[in-house]
Amino acid sequence: MVRVVGDNLEPQILSLREALYLADRYELDLVEISPQANPPVCKVMDYQKFIYEQKKKQKEIKAKSAKIVVKEIRLGPHTDDHDFEFKVNHAVKFLKEGCKVKVDVFFKGRMIVYKDQGELILLKFAQAVEEFGKPEQLPKLEGKRMIMILNPKK
After folding, report:
1. N or C, which terminus of the chain has less Cβ within 10 Å?
2. Measured at the alpha carbon of residue 50, what is the angle toward residues 24 and 67, in degrees to the nearest 5?
3. Which residue, of 62, 90, 113, is where some domain finishes?
4. What is the pTM for the complete model shown?
5. Are residues 56 and 79 in the same domain?
6. 37 lies in the same domain as 92
7. What's the first-to-final CA gap in the chain, in angstroms?
């Protein structure tokens, strides 16, 4: 015995054979919804259409989810003013597009002794783009790189 429910159907308790016959008469499928219930609940529906609509909903949810893009800008501890301004303009463009910007100062060889200059450059960079983005993370030294991440302002 199973409880049969469905669109345009009055809920009723039938034998499995009668439930299958009922689903066949409507040219639909008999799908078990709740096997733990007493008696088990089955629904008369178009199973292929149900699967299709579930996939469609998943696709819509995936399309609506925000995709975070991280753009990377690399500087050196001795970056010139012109190059610095050029990189700032790129960062502003990326932040206006809604991308995160990862700015890093790369220290080659013995340049690691200038890590204080690298930190100053990153702080100056954050100050230059503060109108369009704010730092998510302050400058942090990781190996031969000093990294700072900027988030776009809403």
Report:
1. C
2. 170
3. 62
4. 0.56
5. no
6. no
7. 58
